[in-house]
Specification:
Length: about 375
């Protein structure tokens, strides 16, 4: 009798265990279904995950914004996964954009992989380092740590003390997480320029009159400022390289403008060409001491692969396409200058508002290399 009673008890216990197991399995399957089911939000939702945020707090925030239906069920599922499988998705700091109808599984995957919303900042080819600092200072998503620091202090903070910053930052569009520091973005642009410049220098044309990658960078910055028509870059570089070979002064307006600094009023005056500064290539031979702008990849490649065909002069045509007339002789060049001035007068007389005296004569790609000559030398 006792054995029968014991058997019944064991059977009941077994049935209870089976029922509980089925219930647990059913509960797990239900939680799994909740975890993988599409979310309720019809639109994308943005959420900022702060440092120290917990899974529960993040799930509640998502629920408040309409991206989750049952945060407790999701939290329970995650606990079971951690307990039985040892897996716990990471919640990484940053701004996230949750696509419409995203399941909890898809949302947690975003957090685990740290796929934060990326901001972007564009460094324009031919701009100056001062322009770059201004862009950084006014970007709302950048964490500003360099306010009030001099350019020299910025370079020291980057780990490049003593380097002049102009030209050393590669023009490109950089993507970054919100609250990335200005110093980090500058570091990305500096390293990018180093990679591009090093590769270009390693594959440069033979027998260039350039002694270092830095001189190539300096020449590239001049090419960048002189070029209005992208296809002319190698040809413009060729003119400057030919002049360097011959010992001729570069006589390029953008270097004069850079040397004038805050004194540049939008016009180049005769006195400016005669006033000696380290950047006045009408009064000084060779390259200026530093780059004058942030050159792009094409200008760098043009500087190390110039198209040399005997041309030693160029002047803007004065037309709207930014093209230049290239010359091998002074007589041909002087004729091209006369044509340029005639076109310029026609544009101004016709009221072509986009090309006033300043922009038409001294904008990017509108210079007159060799058109003026150094004081006391006549036109070279």
């Amino acid at each position: 009798m006792g054995d029968r009673q014991s058997g019944k008890v064991l059977l009941r216990v077994l049935l209870i265990v089976i029922v509980l197991a089925i219930a647990m399995e059913g509960s797990y399957l239900w939680l799994q279904n909740v975890y993988n089911a599409p979310g309720p939000s019809k639109d994308s939702v943005r959420i900022q995950v702060e440092q120290g945020a917990t899974v529960r707090s993040v799930l509640l925030d998502l629920t408040k914004q309409g991206a989750l239906r049952n945060p407790r069920a999701v939290e329970m599922y995650l606990r079971l996964e951690r307990h039985f499988k040892g897996h716990q998705p990471r919640i990484q700091v940053g701004m996230y954009e949750i696509p419409a109808r995203s399941s909890p599984a898809q949302i947690m995957d975003l957090f685990d992989q740290g796929r934060v919303v990326l901001e972007q900042l564009t460094i324009i080819e031919g701009s100056r380092f001062a322009d770059l600092r201004h862009t950084l200072d006014n970007h709302a998503a950048v964490m500003h740590t360099l306010a009030g620091k001099s350019d020299a202090e910025v370079m020291t903070a980057l780990g490049h003390a003593g380097e002049f910053p102009e030209g050393r930052f590669f023009p490109d569009t950089y993507k970054f997480a919100p609250k990335t520091t200005d110093l980090e973005i500058l570091g990305m642009a500096y390293n990018a320029m180093q990679r591009v410049l090093d590769e270009a220098w390693q594959h440069r044309s033979e027998n260039l009159p350039l002694q270092s990658p830095y001189e190539a960078l300096t020449l590239a910055s001049i090419v960048e400022k002189e070029t209005g028509l992208p296809t002319e870059r190698p040809r413009i570089a060729g003119v400057f390289v030919s002049r360097l070979r011959k010992g001729m002064r570069l006589q390029t307006d953008p270097t004069v403008i850079y040397g004038l600094g805050a004194n540049y009023d939008g016009y180049i005056h005769t006195r400016d060409l005669a006033t000696d500064t380290p950047y006045n290539t009408y009064t000084r031979a060779g390259l200026p001491p530093t780059p004058i702008a942030l050159p792009g990849r094409d200008s760098i490649m043009a500087a190390v692969h110039p198209l040399e065909n005997g041309e030693i002069y160029f002047v803007a045509t004065g037309l709207a396409d930014g093209a230049h007339h290239f010359s091998k002789t002074l007589d041909e060049h002087n004729a091209a200058v006369k044509s340029y001035l005639a076109n310029l007068r026609a544009l101004q007389h016709g009221g072509a508002g986009a090309h006033g005296p300043s922009s038409a004569t001294h904008g990017k790609g509108m210079s007159q290399t060799g058109a003026h000559g150094a004081p006391g030398e006549g036109v070279q």
